[in-house]
Task: structure prediction
Amino acid sequence: MAIPDNDPKGVSSLINITEAGTLKDLRISINLTHAFLGDLEIYLQAPGGQRVLLQNRSLGNQTSLQTSYALLDTPSLRRLLNQPITGLWQLVAIDQVASDTGTLNSWQIQLGI
Result:
């Protein structure tokens, strides 16, 4: 999916979880490319509407991001613990600066219940 340049809405990709359960653990894996990753903010939005910042604009002039975010290294994810897992999980990538473009190649969510 193309990440729109300098667009506050960004791009959203959805994963629908149909299983029931309460969130005890999670890991988000992301693969994206961008001419200047420092332009991007990346968020995870849970089915209940809670939005967590996974990555702020700190990646500088890197051009490829292939990483995972988990409870141990991304403390803000703890806000989602004990929430229902059923529904639409959304990854949002927002390009905050004009001139450089990129692509969300893929992402995965692993939920522990």
Summary: The first strand starts at residue 2 and ends at 3.
